[in-house]
């Protein structure tokens, strides 16, 4: 039995609310159970210096957690400096989103996706990727509506979900009690067409077999399907 009482194939409730901030070109609040992440996308009509005159656009991401997003208060990273975990997660978000972007169609501009965790209960990087894509989609829609780009640079949806082996069973969408006790923990990033973008899997106390990995991939495939459905519903 999972701590939440969910079936091994059952996702936490997912909701995505769009246009939740006034100033960002794209924004959403994604809730995956008790994990809540605010995602905003900001357009800059410049690219990093190393990309200047390349004709290509760029999508990047930043990630952070509010001090009381977790059970006990964390010190703000603005005070102590970014942790290695934060840097790793924001690079993952950026890589994941760029995998479904035609950078030549985007033109020589940068879109920065900020993912700020309001409340954490496992799967914050996956929620950030899923919600970050929605914010990116909304920002690109504004570029297209304004006639600033002639073709859609987003080639597919991008979503991510966690899976793992908890109490000897492969389970979908780990919450914190499961994540902290899982023998195997994995994050799966896919396109809407179920093409793999990135897989992060590690044994946390027990090794796993090829068959178990395939089972987790199957669970992730179903979970991403649910998340893409939530993205489409949120965008209308």
What does the model show?
The protein has 236 residues and is of the alpha+beta class. It has a single domain (14-235), classed as 2-Layer Sandwich (Ribosomal Protein S5, domain 2). It has six helices and nine strands; from the N terminus they run E-E-E-E-H-H-H-E-H-E-E-H-E-E-H. The N and C termini lie far apart (36 Å). The model has no long low-confidence stretch (mean pLDDT 96).
In short:
With 236 residues, the chain is an alpha+beta fold. Helices cover 32% and strands 29% of the residues. It has 6 helices and 9 strands; from the N terminus they run ββββαααβαββαββα.
Question: Which key terms come to mind for this protein?
Answer:
Ribosomal Protein S5, domain 2, alpha+beta, 6 helices, single chain, five-stranded mixed sheet, 9 strands, 29% strand, 236 residues, globular
Mean pLDDT: 96
What structural category arises from helix and sheet content?
alpha+beta
Q: Give the strand content.
A: 25-35%
Spans of at least 5 consecutive residues with low confidence: none
Question: CATH top level?
Answer: Alpha Beta
Corresponding CATH architecture: 2-Layer Sandwich
Number of separate strands? 9
Morphology call: globular
Major beta sheet, strand line-up: 1-2-3-5-4
The span between the termini is 36 Å
Summarize the SSE layout with pairings:
Elements: E1 14-18, E2 26-32, E3 35-44, E4 58-65, H1 77-80, H2 84-98, H3 103-106, E5 110-119, H4 124-145, E6 158-166, E7 169-172, H5 176-179, E8 184-191, E9 196-203, H6 210-235
Parallel strand pairs: 4-5
Antiparallel strand pairs: 1-2, 2-3, 3-5, 6-7, 6-8, 8-9
Helix pairs in contact: 2-4, 4-6
């Amino acid at each position: 039995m999972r701590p939440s009482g969910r079936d091994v194939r059952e996702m936490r409730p997912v909701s995505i609310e769009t246009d939740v901030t006034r100033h960002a070109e794209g924004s959403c609040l994604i809730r995956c159970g008790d994990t809540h992440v605010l995602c905003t996308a900001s357009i800059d009509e410049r690219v990093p210096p190393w990309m200047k005159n390349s004709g290509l656009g760029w999508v990047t991401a930043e990630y952070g957690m509010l001090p009381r997003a977790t059970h006990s208060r964390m010190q703000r990273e603005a005070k102590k400096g970014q942790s290695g975990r934060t840097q790793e997660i924001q690079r993952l978000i950026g890589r994941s989103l760029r995998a479904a972007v035609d950078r030549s169609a985007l033109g020589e501009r940068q879109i920065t996706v900020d993912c700020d965790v309001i409340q954490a209960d496992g799967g914050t990087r996956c929620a950030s990727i899923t919600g970050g894509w929605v914010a990116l989609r909304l920002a690109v829609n504004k570029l297209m509506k304004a006639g600033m780009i002639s073709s859609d640079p987003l080639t597919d949806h991008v979503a991510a979900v966690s899976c793992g082996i908890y109490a000897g069973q492969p389970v979908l969408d780990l919450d914190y009690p499961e994540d902290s006790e899982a023998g195997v923990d994995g994050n799966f990033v896919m396109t809407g067409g179920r093409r793999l973008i990135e897989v992060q899997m590690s044994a946390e106390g027990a090794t796993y077999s090829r068959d178990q990995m395939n089972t987790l991939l199957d669970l992730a495939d179903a979970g991403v399907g649910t998340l893409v459905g939530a993205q489409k519903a949120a965008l209308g």
